[in-house]
Structures are given as C-alpha cells and as structure tokens.
Amino acid sequence: MKHYKLVIFDWDGTLMDSVGKIVECMQQAAAQCGEPVPSAEQVGNIIGISLHPAVAQLFGLKDEQKIESIVAAYKTAYVTKDQRPCPMFEGATQLLKALHSNGRQLAVATGKARRGLDRAWQHTATGDYFVASRTACDAQSKPSSDMLQQLLSETGVAVDEAVMIGDTVYDMQMAQQLGMDRIGVTYGVHDSQQLNNHMPVAVVNSVPELHRYLLG
C-alpha cells in the first residue's frame, strides 16, 4: 500500500451511482431525435468520455448539427425530465472524509460539464473535500491525459505521488499515458478484465474495499 499525496477520482460510476440515470437519459435523447435507441451496454461503453465526442461515437455521427441536437436533448432529460438526485455509492462520502482527515489532497477528473459537477457537489455536500477538479469544460476529453496533467500542475504533486481511480478503461488509459498509478473499480461500467488490460495497481469491487486499499 502506497501513501499517495494526491488521490484523483472519476465521478460518475466511481463516487456517484449515476450510471442508470445516464443510460435512461441518453435513451430518451435518442428516441426524441429519431436515432436508434442504444442498449444500456452501448451507453455504458461511452460513459466517461466528454458528452460531445461520446454522442458522436455512440451514434456513429459526424454531422455536428445532429450531434448537438442529441447533446441538447440529453442535457434537458438529465436536468429537467428526471430531477432525482443521484446518490453517492455506499461508503463514498466516508472515504472522502477519511482521506481528507488523513491529509491527502483530493481531486476530480470527470467527463461531466462543470455545471453538472457543481450541481452534484451541491446535492451531496462533498465539494469542500476537493482541492482541484477538471471537467469536460476545462480540458480535453478522456482518454487524453490533459485533465491529469493540469491537476498535477495545479497541485504541484509529482506523477509518482498521485493515483487515478475510475470505473472505465478511459480512466485507466489517461493515467497509463502518464505513468501514473491507477485503481479500477468494478461497480461502475467496465469489468475487471477490461480494467486489468491497462495494468492498474489494483482493481476493487466496492467502496469499502477501496477504502481499505488506500487507508488500511
């Protein structure tokens, strides 16, 4: 077990149990815009990528106007049609509190928009735990390492003193490009086999297991 100075979390599917809502809203957007409705597995495979490139990849589109119409329909569905706040995974808030109390710096690297992350922080009262964050509005989409490079620069932490934690291969890839340690979680989108393809230092199956790995 390594004492990381900076612990960087993905958000959806890693700290917040929001994958089901993302799938439902993307399916609604597809139906509204006259596109074939994707399966839950198909939507799951693009979760973690920033919204615009995710929509282009999911529907195989190059038409910018069509992509933007689906993006707009998705945002409307997520914010207005389904106003249920998504819960944090069991034990996630306690993990953030424990890491913070232990003197670790915490950050977020997410494909969400800035407004979406701010709204999630407000609903969960967890924003104060984080010293830095990067969203789809601030950096290149995963799997580019741009988010992580910016976070390292802002915090002044060396790459070998940081770890990226996420539920998708995109999280693993962005850290792998930098030679940053990475931990995969299997309770979000991708399974252990997919995550292990990117040589994480660990793959865990629950938040309590992640807690034990990081803090003993």
Plain-language structure description:
The chain has a 6-stranded parallel sheet with strand order 3-2-1-4-5-6, with helices on both faces. It has 2 domains: 6-17 and 87-215, HAD superfamily/HAD-like (Rossmann fold, 3-Layer(aba) Sandwich); 19-81, DNA polymerase, domain 1, CATH 1.10.150. It has 216 residues and is α/β, with parallel strands linked by helices. The N and C termini lie close together (8 Å). The protein is built from 10 helices and 6 strands; from the N terminus they run βαααααβαβαβαβαβα. It has helices spanning 19-32, 40-44, 51-59, 64-81, 92-101, 114-124, 146-155, 169-178, 192-196, 207-215; strands at residues 6-9, 105-109, 132-134, 162-166, 181-185, 202-204. Helices cover 47% and strands 12% of the residues. α9 (192-196) links the parallel β5 (181-185) and β6 (202-204). α5 runs parallel beside α10 (207-215). It is globular and about 50 Å long.
Structural class: alpha/beta
State the fourth-level CATH superfamily of the largest domain: HAD superfamily/HAD-like
The tally of beta strands, per DSSP, is: 6
Compute the CA-based radius of gyration.
17 Å
What is the arithmetic mean of pLDDT? 95
Terminal Cα span: 8 Å
Biggest sheet details: 6 strands, parallel
What's the CATH class of the largest domain, please? Alpha Beta
% residues in beta strands: 5-15%
CATH topology of the largest domain: Rossmann fold
- The number of helical segments is 10
Judging by the overall fold, what is the CATH architecture of the largest domain? 3-Layer(aba) Sandwich
Query: Strand sequence of the main sheet, in spatial order?
Result: 3-2-1-4-5-6
SSE order in H/E notation?
EHHHHHEHEHEHEHEH
- Contiguous low-pLDDT stretches (5 residues minimum) are none
Helicity level, as a percent range?
40-55%
Number of domains: 2
Principal-axis shape equals globular
